[in-house]
User: Which sequence fits this backbone?
């Protein structure tokens, strides 16, 4: 065989290699390294939150949620009811309009199935998911600026990495990450980002249907995580407009699965969560604009938008509560409202003027505005003035802008005409490292944000830590003053030393009284003060506060129950019986009310009625030792020794009367 013949086969092989897409050496390896760096950075910034206990709304979704604590068996209930039903057993009792966010509860139910109540593991999962969000931000922005984009000259810039680092470090996100309940925010962003990436892949990779299917599934999962994901019905086509050249057919093909996913979710939400989005709420704690004029309402909304902007730039001080009366009603004559309005107008003008130019600045402003719209109080009431987790997704627009301008400062000559990929200035991080001013800004900004985030995580350790920290930041919050009082009362209940218990209750009193001063209709504050004075045997004071609460809310079962106990101690048995019967009318399965009704009849001298209601208590709770004990005593009084022995023995078997000290 000649040398010429021997060379033919290798030539054919070379042709195949030439037609194959070239791979940049080490590119995949570099990306993997960046992913690990982002995960490590997330755990550095949020690792201390893993040591935290449950706090704030965590009781709603985990520690006191019946469906979550059924594990796998609770998933069906989670999928077919309002988010809060597993906690309060009532549809829409906690918030107007209902909430349908089953996916985060399902993840918590799965955790409970294997680990039961494990706050540290749940916090770990939150941090891990947030790390994936950081990676998602990096991939998302890198995708926006790739070779298919009009901004492809920025393809290898440091913008995606800077944006991801800033997003991870920003303290405004501590509420979403350190509060287990806010896993719905994290999952929503995570699925929204990768859904958008999949739809962009549809355009970039030859209109393959699989990318539409993947995008549909991810968007539907985002909707099941939180309703805010609906805004991506606009964000996704807007993203395509800014960063791709797409045909009308492309928009139709992408829009169809988006609309179908949105439609299916909306039907499910209406069926299982019930309620609309604009229910009328006659409680200022859940409707901060109750009684406000239209001017006051929109002036206050304008002010809060400005406050969000300020917290994005300078995230301190932070608070878990901005409800009544942290932010009083504003007017358009207030200088802070005027400044906020001017900033909003300026940003709107910039976004509109640069819209056709498809700039990053215009896109980021619109991204913030659209994703913020559903929680702005403009479209429908959301039940609060503002809260930090509401800009968990919108803040991505802010991070994108900051990353763009930091990169621009480092590479001022980089423009559309500078598209040579061999230019060192286009290699991620090179230009940043070379520019001392730019590097200084990035290090200082990231460092300060990280320090603040790490410190803020410690505030979320538990309810006591959180409320103690935040009541200093928001001293005029009715909720925080009540919450810290409630936490002190709960702590006091566990203290056996009477002096220490009294000291703890005394610490609670000024907070509860301040909550009532801020909002005179705060029934929880009345109830807690009534309880404290009852425990201190100051029954006149207990009666006073219970009566104050009942004036505001006469059909509150617990307040009626508490007042019945007080009246019994005051030996006003007929009045006690009346109030306790009302508690039972409100809640026919109120075990404690039946028990104290039995006591009041017994103390009045009507042993037969006492036995009748103790029997009802035993029906509701067959393991209630004190109900058997007092029944046994009543049978002794009736000289029925057989029955007396039966009930007293049963009480002893169940642990005796001390087994149920809380009536």
Assistant:
């Amino acid at each position: 065989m000649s040398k010429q013949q021997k060379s033919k086969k290798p030539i054919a092989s070379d042709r195949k290699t030439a037609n194959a897409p070239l791979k940049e050496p080490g590119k995949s390896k570099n990306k993997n390294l960046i992913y690990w760096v982002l995960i490590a950075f997330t755990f550095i910034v949020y690792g201390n939150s893993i040591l935290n206990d449950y706090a704030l709304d965590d009781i709603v979704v985990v520690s006191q949620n019946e469906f979550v604590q059924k594990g796998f068996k609770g998933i069906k209930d989670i999928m077919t009811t309002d988010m809060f039903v597993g906690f309060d057993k009532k549809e829409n009792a906690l918030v107007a309009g209902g909430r349908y966010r089953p996916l985060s509860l399902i993840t918590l139910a799965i955790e409970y199935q294997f680990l039961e109540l494990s706050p540290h593991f749940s916090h770990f999962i939150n941090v891990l998911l947030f790390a994936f969000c950081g990676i998602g931000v990096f991939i998302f922005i890198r995708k926006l600026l790739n070779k298919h984009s009009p901004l492809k000259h920025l393809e290898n810039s440091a913008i995606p990495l800077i944006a991801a680092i800033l997003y991870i470090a920003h303290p405004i996100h501590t509420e979403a990450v350190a509060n287990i309940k806010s896993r719905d925010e994290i999952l929503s962003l995570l699925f929204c980002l990768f859904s958008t990436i999949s739809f962009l892949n549809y355009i970039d990779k030859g209109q393959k249907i699989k990318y539409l299917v993947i995008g549909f599934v991810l968007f539907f999962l985002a909707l099941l995580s939180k309703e805010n994901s609906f805004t991506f019905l606009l964000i996704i086509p807007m993203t395509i407009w800014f960063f791709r050249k797409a045909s009308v057919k492309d928009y139709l093909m992408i829009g169809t699965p988006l609309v179908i996913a949105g439609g299916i979710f909306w039907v499910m939400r209406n069926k299982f969560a019930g309620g609309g989005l604009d229910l009328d709420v006659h409680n200022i704690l859940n409707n901060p604009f109750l009684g406000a004029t239209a001017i006051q309402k929109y002036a206050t909304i304008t002010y809060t938008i400005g406050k969000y902007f300020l917290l994005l730039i300078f995230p301190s001080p932070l608070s878990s509560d901005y409800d009544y009366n942290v932010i009083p009603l504003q007017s358009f004559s207030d200088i802070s409202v005027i400044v906020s309005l001017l900033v909003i107008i300026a940003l709107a003008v910039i976004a509109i003027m640069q819209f056709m130019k498809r700039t990053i600045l215009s896109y980021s402003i619109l991204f913030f505005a659209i994703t913020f719209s559903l929680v702005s109080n403009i479209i429908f009431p959301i039940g609060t003035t503002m809260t930090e987790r509401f800009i968990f997704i919108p803040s991505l627009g802010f991070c994108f802008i900051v990353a763009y301008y930091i990169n621009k400062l480092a590479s001022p000559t980089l423009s559309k005409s500078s598209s040579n990929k061999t230019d060192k200035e286009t290699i991620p991080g090179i230009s940043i490292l070379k520019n001392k001013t730019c590097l200084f800004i990035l290090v200082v900004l990231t460092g300060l944000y990280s320090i603040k985030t790490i410190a803020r995580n410690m505030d979320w350790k538990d309810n006591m830590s959180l409320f103690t920290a935040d009541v200093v930041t928001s001293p005029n919050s009715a909720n925080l003053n009540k919450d810290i009082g409630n936490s002190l009362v709960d702590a006091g209940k566990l203290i056996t030393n009477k002096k220490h218990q009294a000291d703890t209750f005394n610490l609670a009193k000024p907070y509860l009284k301040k909550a009532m001063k801020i909002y005179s209709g705060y029934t929880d504050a009345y109830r807690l003060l009534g309880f404290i004075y009852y425990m201190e045997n100051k029954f006149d004071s207990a009666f006073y506060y219970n009566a104050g609460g009942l004036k505001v809310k006469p059909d509150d079962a617990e307040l009626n129950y508490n007042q019945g106990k007080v009246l019994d101690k005051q030996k006003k048995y007929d009045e006690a019986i009346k109030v306790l019967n009302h508690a039972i009318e409100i809640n026919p399965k109120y075990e404690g009310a039946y028990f104290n009704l039995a006591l009041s009849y017994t103390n009045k001298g009507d042993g037969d009625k006492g036995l009748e209601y103790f029997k009802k208590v035993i029906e509701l709770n067959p393991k209630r030792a004190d109900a058997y004990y007092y029944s046994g005593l009543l049978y002794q009084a009736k000289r029925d020794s057989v029955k007396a022995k039966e009930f007293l023995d049963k009480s002893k078997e169940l642990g005796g009367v001390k087994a149920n000290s809380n009536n």
